[in-house]
Amino acid sequence: MKTLENHIKNKTFSNIYLIFGEEEYLKTSYEKKLISSIISEDLKMMNFDIFEGKNINISQIIDACDTMPFMSDYRLVILKNTGLIYEGKKEDTTKLEKYLHTLPKTTILIFIEEKIDKKLKIFKTISSIGTSHQIGSLSENELVDWILNIFKDNNKDISTKEALYIIRNVGYNMDILLNEINKLISFKNNNTKITISDIDNICSKSVESKIFDLINFMANKNIDEAIQTYKNLIINKTSPFVVLNMISRQFRIILQCKYLYNKNYSINSIASELGLRDFIVKEAIKQSKNFSIKILLQAINECLEIDNNIKTGQIADEMAVEILIIKYTTI
């Protein structure tokens, strides 16, 4: 991302950009920065085209790219979520790949995609002629800094502890985080200090965070809280099937963390091995102390059986998941 930032800052642009990854907030942010840096607002209408979706017309794109800029150094063309570098129409991808070699130097072409296939010829051509940039999720520390800066810009006082609490309750999606942050800023109005209580009262917890709470209650044998958490998920229109799959996933994470921890792996090593964040590993190890490996394996297998029984209509989904929760809270 540093290269992209430097291009924007110094106005030294590549002929072609590929921006890809799952963090929509950052991709949109870079898209806006590139547009404002490449084309002045008053000349945008004459020098800017955007093609979005999988039903785009390659001939129209080529015509747009071949058009000379009007009173501007560059013409800007953006292709967004087209699938051309992943699973788009082969004929279209081939035609566009060949055209890229003749793209006018006065045109800047930007691809913005979620998924790409690095084995495709078009990806290799883009990387050779232009630059490709994978936009991944920010690290927890980077997200904390981002949150602290937003509150600071809005004259609100929040500590690292509260910023972390927001992340771990709301999740890592920056669009969702920004929405919850704005709710907190609006709620506090003239008050500057953001507290844990404010976050609990105002922010909407992610389903993942609620499932995490549910497993904690199960691990600590708190059946009343476990059942109430489950019922609240159902009231909030979370499918029992989704809850079941997330419980199963959490049990697998606990099992994997417990196994590696018993093999004397460090927290960081486990996180790296499993592709998890450190705090998730720490909490999973805490939870694992209340479940033997035998019980965890049994629970995972039972989740699979219930999944199959629900899909084949042998059991009602809501009741089946509730019985599972009661069993592994009291076992």
How would you characterize this protein structure?
With 331 residues, the protein is of the alpha/beta class. The protein has 17 helices and 5 strands.
Brief rundown of the structure:
The chain has 331 residues and is an alpha/beta fold. Helices cover 62% and strands 8% of the residues. The chain has a five-stranded parallel sheet, sandwiched between helices.
List keywords for this structure.
Helicase, Ruva Protein, domain 3; Rossmann fold; 331 residues; Zinc Finger, Delta Prime, domain 3; five-stranded parallel beta sheet
* Structural class designation: alpha/beta
- Looking at the overall shape, the CATH architecture of the largest domain is 3-Layer(aba) Sandwich
- What's the level 1 CATH class of the largest domain? Alpha Beta
Biggest sheet features = 5 strands, parallel
Low-confidence stretches: none
Number of strands: 5
Distance between the termini: 49 Å
- In order across it, which strands form the biggest sheet? 2-3-4-1-5
Q: How many discrete structural domains?
A: 3
What would you report as the Rg, rounded to the nearest angstrom?
25 Å
Approximate helicity band: 55-70%
Strand content: 5-15%
Anisotropy-based shape: globular
Annotation field: number of helices = 17
The helix/strand order is: HEHHEHEHEHEHHHHHHHHHHH
| CATH fold-level topology of the largest domain | Rossmann fold
Report the CATH superfamily of the largest domain.
P-loop containing nucleotide triphosphate hydrolases
The chain-level mean pLDDT equals: 93
